[in-house]
Amino acid sequence: MESSWKLTDTQLRKWLSGLLDGNSVVAPVEEDGVLLFRPIASEDQAVVKPSGKTRWSPKEFLFPRSEALYRYNFKGGTVQLEDPPVPEEHQVLFGVRSCDASGLVRLDEIFLSGTKDRLYAARRENTTVVSAACAAADVECFCTAVGYSPVGEEGSDVQLVPLGEDWMLRVLTDKGRDLVSDAGDGWTAATAKDGKRIAELEKSVAGQIERSPVNREWSQVLEEGFEHGAWDRLAQHCLGCSVCAYVCPSCSCFDMNHEANAWCGEQCRSWDACTFPLFTHHASGHNPRETKQERYRQRVLHKFAFREEDEDPFRCVGCGRCVSLCPAGLDIVNTVSAAVEAIREEGADAAR
Amino acid sequence: MSRVGVFVCHCGENIARNVKVQEVVESSRDIPGTVVTADYPYLCSAPGQQMVIDAIEEHDLDRVVVAACSPQLHEPTFRAAAAQAGLNPHLCEMANIREHCSWVHRDAEQASAKAYQTVVAAVERVKRSRPLDPIEVPVTKRALVIGAGVAGIRSALDMANAGHSVVLVERQPSIGGNMSRLSETFPTLDCSQCILTPLMVQVSRHPNIELLTYSEIEEVSGYVGNFKVRIRRKPSFVVAEDCTACGDCAEVCPQPSGNEFDMALSSRKAIYIPFPQAVPSVYTLDPDRCLNSKLDSPTGFRVLACVKCDEVCKPQCIDFDMQPEFIEREVGVIVAATGFDMKLGQQAAECGYGKHVDVMDGLEFERMLSASGPTEGEVRRPSDGKTPKDVVFIQCVGSRNPEHGVSYCSRICCMYTAKHALLLRHKVPESRAYIFYMDIRAGGKGYEEFVHRAMEEERVMYIRGRPSQIIEEEGKLKVLGVDTLSGRTVEIDADMVVLAAAMEPADHGEIAGKLRIAADTDGFFKEAHPKLRPVETLTAGIFLAGTAQAPKDIPDTVSQASAAASKGMEMLSKDFLERDPSTAHVDESACAGCFECLAVCPYGAIERKQLLDAQGEVFREVAAPNPAMCEGCGLCTVTCRGGYIDLEGYTDEQVFAQLGALGALREVIER
Amino acid sequence: MTEANVTAAKSEAGAVPENWKPHIVALVCNWCSYAGADMAGTTRREYPANVRMMRFPCTGRMSPLMILRAFEQGADGVLVSGCHPGDCHYVQGNLVARRRFTIFRSLMDFIGVDLKRLHFAWVSAAEGHKWAKVVSEVTTSVQEAGPLPSFEHPEGWGGIDLPEMTGSGPQELDEQRLDAIRANLRKAASEVLTTERAGVVIGYGSGSLPDQTHPVLITKTAECEKLEWGQGCRNNLGAYVGSALEKHERVAVVAKTCDLGAISGLIREGQLRRDQLLVIGVQCPGVRDGSGLATKCLSCSGDPHPICDLVVTVEGVQESCEDPSAAALDTPDARDEQIAYLESLPHEERWQYWQRQFGRCLRCYACRAACPLCYCSTCITDKHRPQWVPTSIDHPGNSTWNIIRAVHLAGRCTGCDECARVCPADIRLDLINRKLSLEVERQYGKIGLDPEEKSALVDFRMEDSEEFIL
């Protein structure tokens, strides 16, 4: 069975157009100068390029910014519960960069392991990911430095690989195959030579990324040096917002809030971030992460340490958005290497 | 979980005609927290209230909603009933389904839907109400009276006679105010000084009154029952205890000055006593007129160019080195009785005031009529000293004139003009008096008869109209006007013109500002309610008396002064005052110390509180509203951006819940 | 609450349902308007039953958040009514409230809310007839406006082309002159630390991406070499002064002229004292935004402000000592044409414009974090009891957040534009701030640098305008 084809851009567009039949298609769209994932109504709205990330990841289409977990009302004096409906229409996330697709798998590890999150699972089940490998790195990208790849297949059902003006389309899963089953008119099969271009692409993009790789052993160093005083100065200029967490493809924290009036109410789950001062604030008034340094350390370690198995990947997929969008110019990779350096030089327990 | 009782009143037919009471009652059963609902024809009646009381006891209710008339009418009624049943009164709310509903909406469906929603909002509100107890504030048993005209004198005497301690502050060297300037008073033609002086002497001798003349209020702080006042005693440069008022100093003083008491119609010396019957009877040295410059400079720098008074003073009580003295007093209540001045504005100028010396205002004429005045009671033209024959009086000069004067009526002018004309006729039998008037306002006891006396007995000529021009011609003042009743123009060659100028408050915001009481746009102190609380202000513990509050005559002034004293004594007779507990509270752990709340508080009720650490060091300053001073307006709550201030009785949670109940939601519309 | 749960008789795709009647919430003050409404009842003056009453002690107790919640909970219109100016039972409650309402109303209009839905009135206790008349007029007005439009993404809307912002910006500084300034800055900082004029210098250090800097807090003389200067020096370092003062008695901060208004505001609002600060003003080449100059720089000269303690230029470092009360602030105005253009459009266009932007808002609060004047220990949006600002990250919740953020900065913001710069969603927060700044200026006077001057929204005059009040 064929799994790889070569498509012209026009053919790609036609395929995309066809996907709109019977699917909700979410693709990068330009809005007020910002590239964002949005549901599209026609293929010409979609911006699908050989490189270039959206402003933030498409995780909100599996893990919405806000969703009601249950609703209730007081009709006739009794409480009537309502489960909010899960969207039935099948969803295609189109043009997801490799790093973002990996991010989705990092989210799966949270929401689908152990007790499955019912709402997330339903959406995930109903979603097919068409990823797009990258022909060039954005200035902030560093996926290859953290063990990811611009041509990575993780999290993807169908992968689009940019080949100059054209594209290579590769079916990676059964779900992906369902998307191409009706298409294929005039598509030429991809050759082995085309396949070799993938490795070339990876090498070329890796070459653009000037960061030194983050060593996997550093996780342990970071954990051992948890109390090191370097964290005091490394996080000095963090402002305590949540840009990094919200644009991050793998951040998954949320808060639950109950909002109601005299007639009805709902329990609503919304994005939250460990960088906010009140994130770990207890009802008693105690806050185990009282200072911003402790909060920033937590975020960095969650991305680069706290791995159960040695082979587990970093949760940071190297998209670099936190670096380019941080209001205070913090750089997570620099922070990690500076922390490791300080811990190694001064010993794990060295105070400030 | 609260146990709420909802009681819906029919109010006879007033509510029941347009609101389907039974439906409201039934629907209210479903409101979360409601355990009992009932209706009754007249809930405010004795059996109605009893029903509520019984229900509270029987069903162990901890919250009550009465859906009936306006809380402005019956909130105290139902709160008292709740208290009787052992429930804190603040846990009883009313839902207004009469004034705001059944009386203004005819459609029964709409009215009932609105009534029901109003009840729900009230239930949501009351569920979040907290039991509140009145705040107790101790009372300092002393009163402050500002201004010692007849109003201040009467107020002070009433309180002092009742056994209370009073501090009476007057900025002039003598007490007595404007009334001591008058010659006779209408309608009895009593000699003003004769009826006032005994009161003045009583004040000076009263063991309970501390009289501070030639003094000003410097600063007032605190709140009802606990005011702190700082008073500045201006230096008179004469040691009062030693002065015998012999007058030798004034004899030799070389420096003359206009005599303010005589409205500058006569002169005094730089060292002077305002009038012979002055209380206290001591001389005062005016530093602005004395030849020794910079007399009251704090560094004591002065040039002693002239010490004639000191040379002849037998008791040797002249002290050129005297400094202002600041004293502090703690008082429980304050009466503001700062009186009035004549307002001589554009209209007076148009009548020639200031241009022609024979044009004078009512108070000036009053001094002229007075036996102790500049002319010893004889009416003379200021220009040449001759006795006038034709005198024109003009009423409403500046009053009732929004464009060029004040919009209000100065109330006393019709009466005193009639009096002036009468007295002129008595003193100069061959004289002719003409009064230009717009209306005659003579509403007091004996007033109408008095005016009639002027008209009929003394043949005072009343001309309904206004003069258009006053031209000086060969020493006389030609007054051109019109008589609107006959339609004819009028021309009078007058020897003198007297203007009934408008009355304006003597205080131009200084005392109002220091007391933090409101003044209206004309500068008169604002009463708490024009009908029901005319001697109180909105600031608890501060009362008003006399013309400082509005133009009025002596009987009304004295009545009001006694009323203010009575209100003051109501507080002084208690050891503790109860204040409304609907006050603001700050979350001190969150307050960032920006103090914008302090900037907006109308009562200065927010204090700066220093928070100390374990070592006793100040680590932060936070806002702390004083519950005794807070009046519960809530301005601070909105000013605080973080939302750290809440208002008891109208808390954020209550408001939030009410807004949630009053929304337009599916359930309501489908009901 | 998420949009779906708060449904009223809302329209589908613009059509007004047949039996739709406006739902109006009235916030009234107890002493005047509530009593006036009572009087309307006593005198049996009929008026439409669409209005629901809420009693408050004073208009001073009514906040924009309450009005916003009324709309969130399904009201199509809101009426706020209180005592006539001069008659407030609490002396000045309505006078302070009048300024608040003026600014809030102008913001609601700017956001695209039909002003036919939002009314303010003065009704006294004696004016029963006026109350009935006002309610009737308001009901008719809201009826005309129709049901409250949904807070949602404007599908298929073409967008607005705002006029381009123009200006020449500061004088160009070539590499050589920038080098000189940088050297002088490092020298000045070093001197400040060695002479102990301050315990820390807050400045800009080089970042990891090209043209990017990040704030540095320098306590050692040797580290002064880290200080950078150039078009990448964007942060308003005033945001770091408060926390620096927890560790040091006196703090030196590098400041561009656009940063000063916030620093002055911090002093005005008691967050720090002038003597705790040493302000180092530096000749500025303007900051870059993408490929061009940031908007705020277009009408700025780049010259350091004389109010700074030290002034660093190409020539050297000078002491400066100016009386703050004489300091005027040269507020940028390149945006004013865009604001005027937006205001010329029908309000429905503005509604879609802002809903599209608010829809992108992630509630990351970067705007709040970067603003030096957002120093509240806990933000109003974190207040749970009650939850005034809905936590849901959707159009209604985001609209409330963005509105209240702007309202809380009105009269205080001087346009450093940090909020707009740091917003990951490119929301034109600078336009909203500038709009309110213009409104405050127009009504109550310009915001200056003098910390002694009272902020406009905690002040009032009897003669403040009130043309819109019924």
TrEMBL record, chain A:
PROSITE patterns: 4FE4S_FER_1, 4FE4S_FER_2, COMPLEX1_75K_3. Pfam families: Fer4_22. Keywords: Iron, Iron-sulfur, Metal-binding. Gene3D superfamilies: Alpha-helical ferredoxin. The keyword Oxidoreductase does not apply. InterPro entries: 4Fe4S_Fe-S-bd, 4Fe4S_Fe_S_CS, Helical_ferredxn, NADH_UbQ_OxRdtase_75kDa_su_CS. GO terms for biological process: ATP synthesis coupled electron transport. GO terms for cellular component: membrane. It comes from the Bacteria. Residues 227-259, 307-336 form the 4Fe-4S ferredoxin-type domain. GO terms for molecular function: iron-sulfur cluster binding; metal ion binding; NADH dehydrogenase (ubiquinone) activity. This is 4Fe-4S dicluster domain-containing protein. The lineage of its organism: Bacteria, Pseudomonadati, Acidobacteriota, Thermoanaerobaculia, Thermoanaerobaculales.
TrEMBL record, chain B:
GO terms for molecular function: 4 iron, 4 sulfur cluster binding; metal ion binding; oxidoreductase activity. InterPro entries: 4Fe4S_Fe-S-bd (IPR017896), 4Fe4S_Fe_S_CS (IPR017900), FAD/NAD-bd_sf (IPR036188), HdrA-like (IPR039650). Transmembrane segments: none annotated. SUPFAM superfamilies: 4Fe-4S ferredoxins, FAD/NAD(P)-binding domain. Keywords: 4Fe-4S, FAD, Flavoprotein, Iron, Iron-sulfur, Metal-binding, Oxidoreductase. The keyword Iron applies. Residues 234-264, 582-611, 621-650 form the 4Fe-4S ferredoxin-type domain. Its cofactor is FAD. It holds the Pfam family FAD_oxidored. Signal peptide: none annotated. Belongs to the HdrA family. This is CoB--CoM heterodisulfide reductase iron-sulfur subunit A family protein. It comes from Candidatus Sulfomarinibacter kjeldsenii.
UniProtKB/TrEMBL annotation, chain C:
Gene3D superfamilies: Alpha-helical ferredoxin (1.10.1060.10). InterPro entries: 4Fe4S_Fe-S-bd, 4Fe4S_Fe_S_CS, Helical_ferredxn, MvhD/FlpD. Coiled coil: none annotated. It holds the Pfam family FlpD. Keywords: Iron, Iron-sulfur, Metal-binding, Oxidoreductase. Residues 404-434 form the 4Fe-4S ferredoxin-type domain. GO terms for molecular function: iron-sulfur cluster binding; metal ion binding; oxidoreductase activity. This is Hydrogenase iron-sulfur subunit. It comes from Candidatus Sulfomarinibacter kjeldsenii.
